[in-house]
Amino acid sequence: MSFVIKSIDHIQLAAPRGSEEQARSFFIGILGFKEVEKPEVMKKRGGVWFAFGNYQIHIGIEEPFFPAKKAHPAFVVENIEAFKTHLQRNLVTFLVDDNLPGANRIYLNDPFGNRIEVLEWIEKSNSLLKE
Questions:
Q1: Distance CA 89, CA 125 (A)
Q2: Distance CA 105, CA 113 (A)
Q3: Which of 16, 75, 99, 111 lies at a CB distance of 3.0 to 4.6 Å from 22, suitable for a disulfide?
Q4: Could you tell me if 41 and 30 are in contact, meaning their C-beta atoms sit under 8 angstroms apart?
Q5: Strands 115-121 and 103-109
Q6: Start-to-end C-alpha separation, the chain
Q7: In the CATH hierarchy, which fold is given to the domain comprising 11-123?
Q8: Each residue of 6-43: pLDDT tens digit?
């Protein structure tokens, strides 16, 4: 093969028009991401971009808007029990799912109903991504 896919540049989630402040409240206020300045030419489209570490989440405006109920990003967290407590304190509901061997995981929704998975691998050897 003459090419190699190196990484994910960003993940995009959809949101309804005018939802940028809700997105900031959730992705910055709850998840602790940082806002990324969008290029000037793209600002007129609406939406907002966030980053954590080397990863970006772009919230794009979609009309008509329908939340992603199955497709989702999955974030690895350290200390998922503390994360669950943080979510509860911020009145963010989540669903515990124990169907993935070797992982503690939960599902939650962003303010627009998009599904988000958060997991902590209990046994590194069970991670689907081998290093």
A1: 32
A2: 18
A3: 111
A4: no
A5: antiparallel
A6: 20
A7: 2,3-Dihydroxybiphenyl 1,2-Dioxygenase; domain 1 (3.10.180)
A8: 888 999 999 999 999 999 999 999 999 999 999 999 99
Q: What is the pTM of this model?
A: 0.89
Beta strands in the chain, from DSSP E residues, in sequence order: 11-15, 34-36, 48-52, 55-61, 74-76, 94-97, 103-109, 115-121
Q: Collect contacts of 124-128 with beta carbons under 8 A, ≥24 apart.
A: 126/101, 126/102, 127/102, 127/103
Tell me the H-state helices in the chain: 20-24, 40-43, 80-89
- What token pair was written down for 92? 């963010």
Token pair 């124990």 is found at 98
**Lookup: tokens for 130:** 């081998």
Give me 14's structure tokens. Answer: 């959809």
pLDDT, one tens digit per residue, over 81-120 is 999 999 999 999 999 999 999 999 999 999 999 999 999 9
